[in-house]
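User: Structure please.
Assistant: Input sequence and predicted structure:
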Amino acid sequence: MKNEIKIGYQAFVADGGEEFGAVRQVMPNGDVVVYVENAGDFVVTSDAIEAVHSQKIIVRPSKLDARLREAIKHSHEAEEPGA
């Protein structure tokens, strides 16, 4: 699956949900670095990646670091409504 992931793919916790970040780096071991708005870069381990398709990755929240789960909750707070 790691060979399918490209820089710029959007990251989601559920297919059809709202994106929370974008892939900034794909590591040789299959882990990826995802930039989360308002929080910075986080490593998502390959075992936390559930699916890759349509230029997006879907992650398993239960496999994510607690800091990343918290950052995801707040990833859209700085957005202006209607912008």
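The chain is about 10% helix and 35% strand.
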